[in-house]
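Um, can you check?
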Amino acid sequence: MEAVLSSSKVYSSYLRFLRVTAKIRKRLRPLGKDVNRVYFPQRVAQYRAMWRAVAEEVGARFVELAADTWEIELNGRRTRIANHKLEFDNPVVLKMAGDKPLMHRLLKEAGLAVPEHDVFTLSELDRAFRFLSRHPKGCVIKPADGSAGLGVTTHVETISEVRHAAVLASLYGDEMLIEAQIPGECYRLLVVEGRMLHAVCRRGPRLSGDGTSTVSQLLRAYIERAGHPLKVDRNMLFTLDCQGLSLQSVPEAGRTIVVKTIPQEVDRFVELRTVYNATVTDSICESVRKSAEAAARVLRSDFVGVDIITPDPMVPLEQAGGIINEVNTTPALHHHFDSDNEKYPKVAMEVLSVLLRRSH
């Protein structure tokens, strides 16, 4: 018994050490290369310019109430905007959307596809270890409650990595979620008052088969043309494997291969925010669109970004092996336009129309 207690104390001390280390890394991160991941506070100027341009386009009055808070008034109707936040949804909806286990359950009960998952705490790591044993190709560990995309680790494959990923996630809440890693790219479908208006994708790099070259050879040629490295990592190997390929495979001529589902290079155990880089509204099939709209109805949200992971958005989720990953209230509209070439996202015009119509 003493040996068991001693072992338990050592293990608890080890977890505390990992947690302190993770906290230190989190505090130091703004001083280093990850400073650009401080997200919405840095976008105040962008959102101010965006909504001012929308107001001018429709002939509305734009008033600054504070540096990051504005009012748009048209024909006696007005709405207020706080940076990326709009006047949609109530506190209950917002709270429910952040509770990932609850949303997985409600969506599944509604017949919608969600990832296989389990919930655990740092004192219940055995649950996560058992889940990993059933999904040896990889898992995702994240905070169970809303953390705005922080504390997420993908492609977890070993018990040691479960520990580290769980400690990182525990910085944002006591409960963690472990999910099976799903093949495919990430899509954000914007649903407003029950209707999908726009869709974007985090599009990864692609290769084209020639019938004679291996994936490895095609990859080297791609890197030479692009002029920047493309690391062979777990994301790449997992993505290739899900397409029935490896680095030694010879894809047939004309076949398009997704090499990675994350466009930029990232390090292990570094928090990654999803950056959408392609508009794909016309590539979403009716079934996937209806799934996103059904998810919004389950949540009873009038303004939601439904995140879907699938290898093919032109095929129903159940058929493609895709899932609804999250439902995000207060979805950020900067995802939905090219700020280098557009003053504002076109969808913002319709969103403003809805807000003014609903105003009192």
Remarks:
- The radius of gyration is 22 Å.
- The chain has a mean pLDDT of 88.
- The first helix runs from residue 2 to 28.
